[in-house]
Automatic annotation (TrEMBL):
<dbReference type="Pfam" id="PF04237">
    <property type="entry name" value="YjbR"/>
</dbReference>
<dbReference type="GO" id="GO:0003677">
    <property type="term" value="F:DNA binding"/>
</dbReference>
<protein>
    <submittedName>
        <fullName>Predicted DNA-binding protein, MmcQ/YjbR family</fullName>
    </submittedName>
</protein>
<dbReference type="InterPro" id="IPR058532">
    <property type="entry name" value="YjbR/MT2646/Rv2570-like"/>
</dbReference>
<dbReference type="InterPro" id="IPR038056">
    <property type="entry name" value="YjbR-like_sf"/>
</dbReference>
<keyword id="KW-0238">DNA-binding</keyword>
<dbReference type="InterPro" id="IPR007351">
    <property type="entry name" value="YjbR"/>
</dbReference>
Amino acid sequence: MNIEEFRDYCLSKKYVTECFPFDETTLVFKVAEKMFALTGLEHQPTKVNLKCDPEKAIQLREAHEDVIAGFHMSKKHWNTVTIEGYISNELIIELIDHSYDLVVKGMTKKKQKELGFL
């Protein structure tokens, strides 16, 4: 998956926005103002940080050399994934969805209801 495909998929999800809150090269994707994905546009091959359940994060790191502990993030809750590596597009989409869903589930029930997730 290339960066354009990654970006398009992230933006296709409900209530997702993109921004550069840290600098001119770190692209961040948020769902209702909560970050679920980010990438440094200057890196080649493209690597993205995605939120992940801690147990699943460990399993993914053990199973895939292109998944490592989150770079500059909480190593427990974030993975860095090389999306232009050996991981299938299907798995990348699954990981994006998982990250997005974790962030939505972390919202208050009131916020989830307001946004139509409940």
